[in-house]
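Morning F.,

Quick status update on the modeling queue. The single chain you submitted on Monday has been processed. Sequence for confirmation:
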Amino acid sequence: REDPEFAEILSRVRVGEHTEADIAALKALEKNDTLLDDCLSIYFTNYQADGYNDMQLQRLVLKKTYGPLKAIDSGRDKETGRAVIKHTNVGMHEAGGLPPELTIAEGARYMQTKNTDREDYIVNGATGIITNIAIDESKPMKGTIFVKFDDSRVGKSAKKKSKYPGSVPVKAETNPFRFKQGNETVSMERTQYPGILAWGITAHKAQGSTYHEMIGVFTRKKTDTGRLMPYQPAIAYTILSRGTARSRMKLVDFTSDCIVVNKQALKEMKRIQQAR
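C-alpha cells below.
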C-alpha cells in the first residue's frame, strides 16, 4: 500500500522476471543509512542470526544478563510414573515454539515464538523490546519478562494488568512434545519462556510477518570446504517482501544472483492459471 512501485518490483522478483532497473533500485537500498542500528535484521541461516544476536547482547554492557535460562524438559514412564528424562537437545520447532535455552537482558529485542493469546495478538512472530525482567535465579521459570511490542495492538488486554505501563507480561509456558530415546518415543513436556532474541532472525522465521523497518542481509556463509553456500529458491523474495516500504529498508551484499526461483513451482503456477 505504501510503495506501489516497490510492490511491482516484488511481483517481478517473485517469478524471476525482474529487470536491470529493478536490480538497480534494490541495490540502491544498500545506501539507506536512516535506519536504527538495532532494528530487525533478516539472515539466511540460524548461525548468522545467532551470531548477530550474541554481538548485540554484548553491547548492553550496563544491563544485567539473565541466562542461559535452560528449558525444563521432563518425561515420565507411563507405568511407574517416574521421571525418565530431565533434559533434551530438542529444538524449538519440535517443542512447540519453546527454545531449549534463552539469554536475555533489559533493552534486548525479543520475538514471540508461540501463539499465547490470538485474540490479544500475542502470537508467533510478534516483536518488541524487553523493558523489565522479574526473575528469581533460584526459580527462573517462575518469573516474568515484560515486553513492549512494536505493534501497539499486541497484548492490549494484557497490558491493563501489567505493573509496567505499555509492557506485556510474558511468563514461561509448558508445551508437550515427543522425544525419541533409543528405540522408544517418550511423551515429554517443556517449560520455557516463549521467545527468542530478535535483533536478527532467519528468513524462514520471518515468513508471514511484515516489519515497519528492517535490514535484509544477503551475505552467504561459507561451507566447510570454503565454498559459498548456494542461494535457495524464493529466499530473496521472502526477505524483500517482509518490509512495507523501501524508505525503511536497507540491504546488505545484495546482487542479482540472490534471486532464484523454483522452476517447478513456476511451471505448476502457469498450469493452474491456464486451467482456470
